[in-house]
Specification:
The chain has 4 helices and no strands. With about 90 residues, the chain is an all-alpha fold. The longest helix is centred in the middle third of the chain and has 25 residues.
Length: about 90
């Protein structure tokens, strides 16, 4: 939080994009062996946009609660879709 706050004050775009890139990379590590290269790139772009939105929510709300709730809702949606596809 401290580093994010300092980075956003000095370089706003970098302060939003750097954590979004780290979030995307961390999530891509978990799914990289399940996807083809093209789908992996598409997933990476989607994750980056989602993470950037979470960063903006965090910045605007001043609390981690708003992005946390959005992340939980997204996870629930993905799990629901996965269960529907499996059954």
């Amino acid at each position: 939080g401290f580093a994010f706050g300092q980075l956003v004050r000095r370089q706003r775009i970098l302060g939003q994009c750097l954590p979004a890139a780290a979030f995307s990379a961390q999530h891509l590590l978990f799914i990289s062996h399940w996807l083809s290269p093209g789908l992996l790139v598409l997933a990476g772009l989607g994750l980056f946009v989602f993470a950037w939105i979470l960063q903006v929510l965090y910045e605007k709300s001043g609390t981690i609660v708003a992005p946390w709730v959005v992340h939980i809702l997204a996870d629930l949606a993905m799990m629901t879709i996965a269960l529907e596809l499996l059954w």
